[in-house]
Design a protein that fits this description.
With 268 residues, this protein is an alpha/beta fold. It has nine helices and nine strands. It is 51% helix and 15% strand.
Length: 268
């Protein structure tokens, strides 16, 4: 198998960094992007196959810098939109600035990158891999804005899979459960007011009590991404971990029960 060139956003830490290290170790080339130049420099020093771009995916300047890096590399085979962070709190109480910022990072940034590198991906019959979440498939009290942003990314991924199939380009949304990447500790959390204590407060308390034994190995997610990159026919959505599988299945079953319950109204 010939070496691929990967573009990985959010590679300063977490899944993105671990993926970049794994991909370079197996002999592929990596364009790693992120906002923290120090962490990126450390990554590049580990392996000569990794080149880095300090860029914010939510700004035109950041997108331009990434596009320049792709052109310098001669194109990419695999795009991984990984940059992201958690935002938790009641829908009513999340500020407009916070809501817009999470959509810029999870939706409009990836969209801009996809559009910019699609000519290269099309010429190479490449892969688009978008990091979603189990919470992209459903919402719990306090995840509304985060879930909405990841759900939007998933539906874009699904449409891309259909639109680009004739060109041989695949698109997959990865849906991890809870993993030990510092995601929860680094999330933006809006403490709920008293009126939301029974719903949002209770849920956030459960999340805050998660210990190290309650989260999975991030390498599992890396392996899922590699599967999506290497498989002849990767799935449009790929849940990772028992937690994600269980909760997404329960959500889908609930939707089916609700659909069946209103069939008479719908058909009338």
């Amino acid at each position: 198998m010939s070496a691929k060139t990967w573009l990985i956003t959010g590679a300063s830490s977490g899944f993105g960094r671990q993926l970049a290290e794994t991909v370079a170790h197996r002999g592929d080339h990596v364009i790693a992007t992120g906002r923290r130049s120090g962490a990126l420099n450390e990554l590049a020093e580990q392996n000569s196959r990794i080149s880095t771009v300090t860029a914010d995916v939510t700004t035109p300047e950041g997108i331009a810098a990434i596009v320049t890096a792709v052109e310098t590399a001669g194109g990419v085979d695999v795009l991984v939109n990984n940059a992201g962070y958690g935002v938790f709190g009641a829908v009513e109480q999340i500020s407009e600035d916070t809501a817009r910022a999470v959509f810029e990072t999870h939706v409009f940034g990836p969209l801009a990158i996809i559009r910019a590198v699609l000519p290269s991906l099309r010429s190479r019959r490449g892969r688009i891999i978008n990091l979603s979440s189990e919470l992209g498939a459903y919402a719990w009290p306090g995840s509304g804005l985060y879930s909405a942003s990841k759900g939007a990314l998933e539906l874009i991924s699904e449409a891309l899979a259909l639109e680009l199939a004739p060109a041989g380009v695949t698109s997959t949304a990865i849906q991890p459960g809870t993993y030990g990447t510092g995601f929860i500790a680094n999330a933006v959390v809006e403490a709920p007011s008293e009126v939301y204590a029974p719903s949002v407060g209770t849920q956030l308390a459960k999340i805050g009590q998660l210990g190290p034994d309650a989260v999975g190995d991030p390498q599992d997610v890396v392996e899922a991404i590699l599967l999506a990159a290497d498989a002849a026919n990767p799935p449009v959505r790929l849940a990772v971990g028992v937690e994600a599988l269980t909760t997404i299945r329960e959500s889908l079953q609930k939707q089916l029960r609700e659909l069946d319950a209103v069939t008479g109204v719908t058909e009338s």
